[in-house]
Amino acid sequence: MNFTRRQLLQNSAAGFGMMALNAMLQTEGNAEEKTVAVASGPLAPKPVHFPARAKRVIFLFMKGGPSHVDTFDPKPALQRDDGKPFPFEKPRVQFAPTGNLLKSPWKFKKYGESGIEVSELFPHVAQHVDDLCILNSVHGTNAAHGGALLKLHTGSDNFVRPSMGSWITYGLGTENQNLPGFVTICPTLAHGGVKNWGASFLPAAHQGTPIGNASITSEQAKVRYIRNASKSHALQRMQLDLLGEMNREHIQQTGPNLALEGRINSFELAFRMQNEMPQVQDLSNETADTLKLYGMDEKSTTDFGRQCLLARRYAERGVRFVQVTHSNSEVQWDQHGDLKKGHEQNAQEVDKPIAGLLQDLKQRGLLEDTLVMWGGEFGRTPTVQGKNGRDHNPDGFTMWLAGGGVKSGTRYGTTDEYGYYAQQDKLHIHDLHATLLHLLGLDHKKLTYRYAGRDFRLTDVAGKVAHGIFA
Fold first, then answer.
1. For the chain, how many structural domains are there in total?
2. DSSP 340-386
3. Would residue 48 count as lying in a domain?
4. What one-character-per-residue DSSP string does 187-218 give?
5. Distance CA 31, CA 254 (A)
6. CATH number of the domain that 217 lies in?
7. Cα–Cα distances in Å, from 259 out to 23, 37, 166, 227, 248?
């Protein structure tokens, strides 16, 4: 049988291509799931369950557990009773023994029209207190970093589950098909590591894309292999065009192959990312005033300032979920000792960049539909550990939200008079996740994925939406 040169090239290349593609294909789900995923694309925008207040999320994660009673939850009784025994029973499960009450080394002051008190640790963020919805009654179930990080990020502290960023992109897709739907900048590799931004049993397209990690500076944080050192952009384009043509002819001969079509689409996305991702990472077109706003003119704030600026750049380009992590390898927020020195250093590194992010989002009109979330995996005890530290406290702590349809200039919930236990309008991590999804237009009870014979969700079998924080 005679072949033309073109026919020989197409038939042989298609065969080799199919061998490579089949090796790359993952285990497939049922036919219905495959049809939806491939026909629309796993990251294509999807309809919400009800009108959304927010379109995207920026999560400012303070690894180690910042002390709520020293930042956003003032306790006059703690100042008054410094050195006295804690008058209530301490939790049955504690990370380590603690002693008597320890007052905050910092003063609190009222700011803004709301008159909300903020610690002198955060003078810049305090200027934006009228944009914050401070959640003073958050609580979890795990006093160890590893379990608490997983609980916050995935809703489970003892099983491998999809992260909240993965659930959100699974439910909503993303607005920019040239970028990942979920990006995490300089994430920690400790205490769960990749599990904190992993997709677990969700389709791999919903996995978080790490930009660097906590062991390197944000300036060094790049997407690996974003440039092809051996082949030019034009040559890659020619290869993809040829591969696409051959496989379209192959499909015409063999019939529909949705998995193959999906894989080719993923190649196209990787190709497009080569153009857009470096543009996002390139800050050369930002003004000197903007760089200064994020604290990039000061040594102590440059690193986290760049993370926050990158978060804005990803968010404005349609990335659905962006996380930035403050994880100073020397100090973090985990002050079991020398509370004053550690928290002052950490706050100095993040205060100005966070305030700059809030101001920048607001002046660009992005804060209205961008939900900014700040917090750590737990808080700290109001009782002393050692001479001058605080232990882990998952029983009551503070996180705050801004933008994205929440009530601004408000507090929600309380801890007891010393700050040990969440007390009024208690907000469990499952409740926080349910509320987060609701703001994005997703019903946490309907956002499910069938795996191993049951329907899983971010909130497991719990979670109540805190309607009281909605504007």
1. 1
2. HHHHHHHHHHHHHHHHHHHHHHHHTT-GGGEEEEEE-S-EEEEEEET
3. no
4. --SSTTGGGGS--TTS-GGGS-EEES-TTS-T
5. 18
6. 3.40.720.10
7. 12, 9, 21, 26, 13
Q: Rounded CA gap, 81 and 243, in Å? A: 73
Is 444 a domain residue? Answer: yes
- Counting every residue, how long is the chain? 471
Range of the domain at 149: 56-223+287-469
Residue 26 has pLDDT above 60, yes or no: no
Q: Compute CA 135 distance to the chain's CA centroid, rounded to the nearest angstrom.
A: 18
Q: Could you tell me if 227 and 239 are in contact, meaning their C-beta atoms sit under 8 angstroms apart?
A: no
> In this structure, is residue 45 part of a structural domain?
no
Provide mean pLDDT across the span 55-74.
98
pLDDT of 224: 78
Closest CA to 469 of 98, 123, 113, 137: 137
- Residue 174 and residue 45 in contact, taking contact as beta carbons nearer than 8 Å: yes
Q: Mean pLDDT over residues 138-154, rounded?
A: 97
For residues 412 and 400, the answer to whether their CB atoms sit within 8 Å is no
d(CA 248, CA 270): 19
Pairing of strands 379-385, 321-326: unpaired
Q: Please give the structure tokens belonging to residue 284.
A: 């050369």
pLDDT in tens, 223-245: 878 878 788 888 888 988 898 88
Tokens of 177: 């098909």
pLDDT of residue 274: 86
Half-sphere exposure of 125 (CA within 13 A, CB side): 25
pTM reported for the whole predicted model: 0.88
Token pair of 404 as six digits: 């994205």
Quote the CA–CA distance of 273 and 267 in Å, as a whole number: 10
pLDDT score, position 419: 98
